[in-house]
C-alpha cells in the first residue's frame, strides 16, 4: 500500500529504454550497438538522453572499428544489414556538407560511401551498410526504421559517467548533491532513498512499510526494463493525503527536467482500477503543490491530436496550465 504522510515527496520513475547496458571501449570513446529499430531522429534522441551521440565516424580506423562492433551483434548472420550513423546532409549536399547530431559540420568527401552514393534523392540521413568485409555509407529517408549505434566520451578510472555525458569523481556519487547536473549521480542511492530497479515484477514499498514513515522526506524509485519493452505499472492500493501529497506521472525521460507530465493523482482515488503502460519511456513523480506545464511537439509538417478522457481542475492544481494542441500550434485550453 502506498500511504504518504503530509508534506512527503516521492518520485517514482519508470523507464523502458536503452540505458544500463554495457558499452565497448575503443580508444577514448565508448560505443554501443542497439538492434532495436528506430527512425534517425528517435535514435539520436535515445543516444542524447544518456550522455552520448548517434555515432559519427572520423577516420578509416574508426569506420573499421564500428563495423566490427556492429557485426559482432546478432545481426552478423544477415546480409546487407544497415544501421544509423549520426550524419545528415545539408541543403541536399549543394554545399557538400554533412551535419552531425551534435551540430558539427563535416565534408561529404570524408565519408566512406558506397558506389553511386551519396544520392540526395534517396534521403537526407546517413546509414552504414554492413558488407562481407567492410561497411559503406548511404543516404536514405530519415523515417526508415533501423538499428543504431551510440558513441560517448569515455570517463577516466575512478569516475562516474553521468547520463548527460559529464564525468565526475566517483566519490561524489550518492553524496546528496546533484554533481552531474541532471541528477543521475543520485539515481541509485538506497541510503538516500533513491532506489533503482531493473527486473520484472518489482514491488515498491514506502519506508517502514506497513508502518508510516517520517514526514518531510524525499524518495525516488527508478524502474527500467529491457530494450524495446513496455512497463506495466499497477497500484494495489493508493492513499495519499489529499491536496498535500500528489502523484505526478511524467513521460519521456528518467530526469524531471526533460520529462513531460501526463497525470496528477492525489487522495483516495480509483487508481488501483487503472493500469499505466509505458510507450518507450515512463516516469512517475510524487510531489505536492507544484506548478506544471505540458508542451507537445510533433515532427515538422505533422499534426498533433490530443484526446483527454477527463480533466478536472482542483484547487490544488490551479497553478498548473493545461494545454491542447491543434496542428503545430499549442494553445491554452479554455
From TrEMBL:
Alphabetized SUPFAM superfamilies for the sequence: C-type lectin-like (SSF56436), LDL receptor-like module (SSF57424), Spermadhesin, CUB domain (SSF49854)
Q: Where is the signal peptide?
A: 1-23
Keyword annotations for this protein? Disulfide bond, Signal
Q: Does the keyword Disulfide bond apply?
A: yes
> What InterPro entries does its record include?
C-type_lectin-like (IPR001304), C-type_lectin-like/link_sf (IPR016186), CTDL_fold (IPR016187), CUB_dom (IPR000859), LDL_receptor-like_sf (IPR036055), LDLR_class-A_CS (IPR023415), LDrepeatLR_classA_rpt (IPR002172), Snaclec (IPR050976)
Superkingdom is: Eukaryota
Q: Which residues form the CUB domain?
A: 193-283
Q: Report the residue ranges that make up the C-type lectin domain in this protein.
A: 26-151
Q: Which residues pair up as cystines?
A: 155-167, 162-180, 174-189
Keyword Signal listed = yes
Q: What is this protein called?
A: C-type lectin domain-containing protein
Amino acid at each position: 500500500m502506498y500511504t504518504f504522510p503530509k508534506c512527503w515527496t516521492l518520485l517514482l520513475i519508470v523507464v523502458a529504454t536503452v540505458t544500463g547496458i554495457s558499452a565497448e571501449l575503443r580508444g577514448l570513446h565508448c560505443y554501443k550497438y542497439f538492434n532495436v529499430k528506430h527512425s534517425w531522429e528517435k535514435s539520436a534522441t535515445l543516444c542524447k538522453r544518456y550522455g552520448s551521440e548517434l555515432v559519427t565516424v572520423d577516420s578509416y580506423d574508426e569506420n573499421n572499428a564500428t563495423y566490427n562492433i556492429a557485426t559482432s551483434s546478432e545481426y552478423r548472420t544477415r546480409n546487407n544489414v544497415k544501421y544509423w550513423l549520426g550524419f545528415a546532409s545539408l541543403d541536399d549536399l549543394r554545399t557538400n556538407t554533412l551535419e552531425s547530431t551534435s551540430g558539427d559540420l563535416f565534408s561529404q568527401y570524408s565519408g566512406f560511401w558506397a558506389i553511386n552514393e551519396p544520392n540526395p534523392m534517396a534521403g537526407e540521413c546517413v546509414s552504414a551498410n554492413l558488407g562481407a568485409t567492410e561497411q559503406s555509407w548511404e543516404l536514405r529517408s530519415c523515417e526508415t526504421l533501423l538499428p543504431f549505434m551510440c558513441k560517448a566520451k569515455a570517463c577516466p578510472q575512478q569516475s562516474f559517467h553521468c547520463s548527460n555525458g559529464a564525468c565526475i569523481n566517483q566519490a561524489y556519487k550518492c553524496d546528496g548533491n546533484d554533481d552531474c547536473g541532471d541528477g543521475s549521480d543520485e539515481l541509485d542511492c538506497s541510503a538516500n532513498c533513491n532506489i533503482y530497479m531493473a527486473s520484472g515484477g518489482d514491488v515498491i514499498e514506502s519506508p517502514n512499510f506497513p508502518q508510516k514513515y517520517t514526514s518531510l522526506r524525499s524518495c525516488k524509485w527508478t524502474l527500467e526494463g529491457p530494450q524495446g519493452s513496455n512497463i506495466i505499472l499497477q497500484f494495489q492500493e493508493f492513499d495519499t493525503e489529499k491536496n498535500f501529497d500528489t502523484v505526478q506521472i511524467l513521460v519521456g525521460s528518467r530526469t524531471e527536467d526533460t520529462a513531460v507530465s501526463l497525470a496528477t493523482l492525489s487522495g483516495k482515488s480509483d487508481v488501483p482500477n487503472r493500469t499505466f503502460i509505458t510507450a518507450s519511456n515512463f516516469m512517475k513523480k510524487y510531489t505536492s503543490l507544484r506548478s506544471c506545464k505540458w508542451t507537445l511537439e510533433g515532427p515538422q509538417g505533422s499534426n498533433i491530436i490530443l484526446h483527454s478522457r477527463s480533466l478536472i481542475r482542483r484547487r490544488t492544481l490551479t497553478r498548473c496550465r493545461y494545454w491542447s494542441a491543434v496542428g503545430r500550434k499549442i494553445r491554452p485550453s479554455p
